[in-house]
Design a protein that fits this description.
alpha/beta, 311 residues, globular, Metallo-beta-lactamase, Chain A
Length: 311
């Protein structure tokens, strides 16, 4: 089982502006000059830098693809869903399954640009604990906010409401849910397949949670191969934005240190965060893990648009 990230930003898409492009170019150019990189090897150099010291995190909002053999699950419908669809067109897949944690704008705005939704004969299953998924999708694709009405989509949409704490089966995936703290409510997902486990905990604020809530999170992610965690704010930023519904990665380090997790992925990057600030947050997170959870074995890294991680 693997996950590929097509959207890692929170709140709103954040494409690079010209000043950020200049900073990025200067950063890479100085490294290339320092190491006397042959222009003929520039592609290998850029790939190596991205792998070792990420400089590109992408600007799209939440949309990620879990795949195990030929079975797929889509995690939410943010703006990254448009890019994801291009790969599906080559596969000529007819059936899709989308898990929705909640319905804030940054998690639904990609659906009107999801090409498979326009193709007759396709079936798109949407799963959520909230009962209003169909209503939300229809409202966002209606006049005067969108020119193509939901009723004109060619695909057949089937909406499934999940009961809280209900375990469901989607093809070979066994899926469980966790109620999380976020404005308007949000649910995390635990996806299991072939003795592998991926947990998706986007859009949640747990820094001031009580001991019972923290235990619920820890139990939910126990033995996970990958935990994708809301880390929108730096340690300092969080104290300025309490009750906004997002977390700092140090909270998850505290929760996960005894949960036998293998990989912790920083996710839902703030739209104002550049590659320097995200990498700085990662560096601080690793130092915090060393100081406060020296016996923990999980590896901390960052979600990056286009990155695939094996469970």
């Amino acid at each position: 089982m693997q996950i590929k990230f097509f959207g890692c930003r929170g709140s709103i898409p954040a494409p690079l502006n010209f000043a950020q492009i200049k900073d990025l170019f200067k950063y890479l150019y100085e490294i290339a000059i320092k190491h006397n990189i042959d222009p003929k090897n520039i592609t290998d150099f850029l790939d190596q830098q991205q792998n070792n010291n990420p400089y590109f995190f992408g600007g799209n909002t939440s949309a990620n693809l879990i795949q195990d053999d030929d079975n797929i699950l889509i995690l939410e419908a943010g703006s990254g869903l448009r890019e994801m669809a291009t790969g599906f067109m080559q596969e000529k897949r007819k059936e899709y399954h989308i898990l929705m944690g909640h319905f804030h704008w940054d998690h639904i705005q990609g659906l009107p640009f999801f090409i498979p939704a326009f193709i007759p004969g396709n079936t798109i299953h949407v799963y959520s604990v909230q009962p209003y998924a169909e209503e939300v999708f229809k409202k966002q694709m209606s006049s005067p906010t969108f020119p193509v009405d939901f009723s004109l989509l060619g695909a057949n949409f089937i909406f499934h409401q999940i009961k809280p704490a209900q375990e469901i089966q989607i093809n070979n995936f066994t899926v469980n849910t966790l109620e999380m703290h976020h404005p308007d409510g949000c649910w995390g997902y635990q996806i299991n397949s072939n003795n592998k486990r991926i947990c998706y905990l986007s859009d949640t604020e747990i820094t001031n949670a009580n001991s019972t809530t923290i235990k619920n999170y820890a139990d939910f992610v126990g033995d996970a191969d990958i935990v994708i965690a809301d880390s929108q704010y730096s340690f300092v930023e969080y104290f300025k934005k309490q009750h906004w519904g997002h977390s700092n990665i140090t909270t998850f380090i505290d929760i996960l240190k005894n949960s036998n997790v293998k990989k912790l992925i920083m996710y839902h990057h703030d739209p104002m965060a550049n590659f320097q600030s995200i990498n700085k947050s990662l560096e601080i997170a690793k130092r915090y893990q060393t100081l406060t959870a020296p016996d923990s074995s999980f590896e901390i890294s960052t979600a990056q648009e286009g990155l695939t991680i094996q469970a």
